Amino acid sequence: MKNLKTFLAAIAILSAMFISNAQKKVVRVYPTHGTVVTTVTKPKIIVHKKTNFYFADGVWYKAKGRKYVVVGAPVGLKVRKLPRGKKLVVINGRKLYRYKGIWYKKSGRNYVIVNV
Q1: Which of 45, 87, 59, 92 has the alpha carbon at shortest distance from 104?
Q2: Nearest Cα residue to 57 out of 23, 29, 24, 82
Q3: Is 91 helix (H, G, I), strand (E, B) or coil?
Q4: What is the pLDDT of residues 6-56, one digit of tens each?
Q5: CA of 64: how far to CAs of 22, 24, 37, 38, in Å?
Q6: pLDDT for 63-112, tens place per residue?
Q7: Are 56 and 41 in contact (CB under 8 A)?
Q8: Which of 15, 25, 44, 53 would you call most buried, defined as having the most Cβ atoms within 10 angstroms of its Cβ?
């Protein structure tokens, strides 16, 4: 009987450990292009080709009245440095960098957003 209680206690502790570990992984789902939202939390405003783009939490938006529409990253926009986690990909001998579905190519000291 004592061995059974010890065995059940060990099973309970192990199952509690597995349950607590299962909650640590966060899966981020980004909205699809064309999704309309009413608010954007602390956006960074970027002007590209006389158009205001809003960037927040890895998502690009354009204003539409008092709302915001999810759009793709503005092609041709130059950035100084790439975010951590970028991946180097060689396509037809061209070095490109990819991060969260956005493609960049090196241009001098900057990186330019490109279509692939």
Answers
A1: 87
A2: 29
A3: strand
A4: 877 777 776 766 666 555 666 667 788 899 999 998 998 989 999 999 988
A5: 40, 37, 10, 10
A6: 999 999 999 889 999 988 887 888 999 988 899 999 878 899 999 999 99
A7: yes
A8: 53
Three-class DSSP category at 18 = helix
- The C-alpha torsion from 95 through 99 and 100 to 102, rounded to 10°, is -50
Angle at 72 between CA 69 and CA 76, to 5 degrees: 130
pTM across the whole model: 0.65
Of the chain, the end-to-end C-alpha distance in Å amounts to: 66
d(CA 99, CA 71): 16
Contact 78, 105 (CB under 8 A): no
- The span from the CA of 56 to the CA of 45, in Å, is 9
